[in-house]
Amino acid sequence: MTSLRYLKWPLIVTFAGLALGAWLGWATTGTVEGMLTVFVICIVLSVLEISLSFDNAIVNANKLKQMTPIWQKRFLTWGILIAVFGMRVIFPLAIVAIAARIGPIEAVKLAIAEPDQYAAIMHDAHLGIAAFGGTFLMMVALSFFFDEHKEIHWVRMVESRVSRFAAIRGVEIAFVLTLALFFAAFLDGDARATFISAALYGLLTYLVVDVMGNLLDRAEETMSDAARGGLGAFLYLEVLDASFSFDGVIGAFALTQNLFVIAIGLGIGAMYVRSMTIMLVERGTLTEYKFLEHGAFYAILILSVIMYAQAIVHVPELLTGLGGATIIGVAFWSSVRHARAAAPVAE
Predict the structure, then answer these.
(1) What angle do CA 44, 318, 177 make, to 5 degrees?
(2) Mean pLDDT across the chain, nearest whole number?
(3) How many domains does the chain have?
(4) What distances in angstroms separate CA 279 from CA 3, 235, 291, 297, one per listed residue?
(5) What is the pTM of this model?
C-alpha cells in the first residue's frame, strides 16, 4: 500500500491523458479506429518515455537527496511543469520556429494545420539536437567516472583505472571533443559544421551550468535558508532533464506527427519518472542498492554515444530504451548479490 501512494498522481494524469487522447483521436478523425489509434500511440509514447528516462530518475534522485526540502519540493513541482510543458510542447515549437524562421504563433498553426511539414522540420533539426544533447549527457556521465575521490566501483577493472586519470585537468573535455570530431568526420559540408557547432554548444552549456552550480554552492552562507544548497542543483537538474528529453521528443515523431498527442504521451511518462525519483529519494534506494547509480551513468554514457551515432545511422528508440533498462537491471542484480554476500550470516 505504501508503494501505491507514489502512483497516485501518475495514475490520475494517465487516465486524464488517455481520455484526452481518445477525444483528440475522435475529434480529428471522426472514427472509432482513429480514436483507438491515438489512444494506443499515447500508451506507447508513455512507455517509451519511461524506458528512456529511468536512468534520469536515478541521477535526479542522487542529486535531489543533497538538496534542501524546499528546493526538493520546488524541483518536483516547478520542475514537472518545465519538463512536461516546456520540453514536450514549447521546445518542439521553438525548434520549428527557429528552423522555419517563423513566430511561435505561426509554429502552433503549422503544428495543427500541417503536421507533416512540422514533423519534417523537427527531423531536419535532429542532427544539431543529437550533437548538443549527446555532448551534455556524455559530460554528465564522464564527470561521475573521472572522479579521483570515487571509492565505490562496480566494474572495478575499468572504473579504478579511469578514476586515476581524473587528476589530469580537462581529461573529460578532451575525450568528448575527440569523440565529437571522430563522428563529425563521417559527415560532409554543412552537416559536419552543424554537428561540431552543436557539440561545442552542448559542452559550453555543461561547463556554464557546472560553474554556476559551484559558485552558488560557495555562496551558500550568504543565501537565505530557502535558497541554500538548492538553486545550483535545480538548474543542473533542469538542463539534465532537457537533455534526456531530446531523444524522446525526436523519436516520438516516428509514431505520430501530432504535437498534442506527443505532449500527452510523453507527459504521462514524465509523471512516472518523477514519481520514481521521489520514491528513490524517500526510500533511500540508492544507498540500499550499491551499484544502481553506476548502472544509470553507464546507461547515460551509452545513450550519449547513441545520440552521436544517430548523426550517421538510424538507431531505433526501442533499442535505446531496452539497452539502458538492461544495464540498470544488471546493476540492480549485482547490488542484490553484493548485499547478500556482505550480510552477516545468522548463527
Answers:
(1) 130
(2) 76
(3) 1
(4) 8, 21, 17, 19
(5) 0.68
